[in-house]
Amino acid sequence: MLRIRGICLAVLLILAVAFPFAQNAYQRYQVSRHLDSVMDTRERAEFRNWNGDAISFAKRLYDRCELTQGQGAVPCGRYRSAFE
Predict the structure, then answer these.
(1) Which of 10, 44, 57, 77 is the most buried (most CB within 10 A)?
(2) How far apart are CA 71 and CA 12, in angstroms?
(3) Would you tell me how many other CB atoms lie within 10 Å of the CB of residue 83?
(4) How many beta carbons lie within 10 A of that of residue 80, not counting itself?
(5) Which of 4-8, 12-16, 38-42 comes out lowest in average pLDDT?
(6) Helix, strand, coil shares of the chain as percentages rounded to 5?
(7) Residue 60 to residue 3: CA distance in whole angstroms
(8) C-alpha dist (Å) from residue 66 to 16, 37, 45, 55, 63
(9) SS3 31
């Protein structure tokens, strides 16, 4: 009985530790899928080297677009869909 409890506790501990990593990987996949058609090669390279979370990268692209195109510019909407 003690052995079964130990195994259950170990499995729960492994799941608790692995969950944030799995969630981050899934989030990166979703953002990269949304942005794949709108990013150029330079932005793709930046995304591969990005150490932060994927949503902050999408927001960064959106902010950069608004700085160059203007506040509320239509072309920037393609970046906005990735983090909404």
Answers:
(1) 57
(2) 47
(3) 19
(4) 15
(5) 38-42
(6) 80, 0, 20
(7) 49
(8) 39, 19, 21, 17, 5
(9) helix
- pLDDT tens track for 36-79: 888 888 988 998 898 888 888 888 888 988 898 888 788 888 88
The label of the residue with tokens 């990166």 reads 28
In 3D space, the residue among 42, 84, 43, 68 whose CA is nearest the CA of residue 76 turns out to be: 68
Cα-based angle 37, 38, 43 (whole degrees, multiple of 5): 110
Q: Record the tokens describing residue 46, joined without a space.
A: 């930046």
